[in-house]
Amino acid sequence: MNHEDQLELATQNIQAATDDRVASICKRLPKGESATHCVDCGLSIAQARRDALPGVQHCISCQEIEDQHGTHR
Ligand SMILES: [Zn+2]
Predict the structure, then answer these.
(1) pTM of whole model > 0.70?
(2) GO: which molecular function terms (predicted)?
(3) Per-chain residues with Cβ under 5 A from ion ligand 1
(4) CB 34 within 8 A of CB 55
(5) Cα(67) to centroid of ligand 1, in Å?
(6) Is a pLDDT exceeding 90 seen at residue 8?
């Protein structure tokens, strides 16, 4: 493998990692319609919660678990 190929490969890896990060950040940003049911456990999400958090995708229980795990970085 020559030098240019290695450079190309490294660039692709960086690109892929960046795309992953952007995708996971985007997933966490509330936007659009709120889910009627939790995407994790399938429980229905209270209308009040959906109104308070536009684009909410998780029920209170799953949101708490996620917050405790500190995945919102
Ligand atoms: Zn849930």
Answers:
(1) no
(2) zinc ion binding
(3) 38, 40-41, 59, 62
(4) yes
(5) 13
(6) no
d(CA 52, CA 65) in angstroms, rounded, equals: 19
Whether the predicted pLDDT of 56 surpasses 60:
yes
What is the whole-number distance in angstroms between the Cα of residue 17 and the centre of ligand 1? 28
Q: Show the tokens assigned to 10.
A: 């490294």
Contacts of 31 (CB under 8 A, 6+ apart): 54, 55
Both tokens assigned to 57: 């995708």
DSSP-assigned letters across all residues of 25-44: HHHHS--SSPPSB-TTT-PB
How far, in Å, from the CA of 45 to the mean position of ligand 1?
8
pLDDT digits (tens, 9 = 90+) for 12-55: 887 887 777 766 655 655 567 899 999 999 999 999 999 999 99
Provide φ and ψ at 59, rounded to 5°: -75, 170
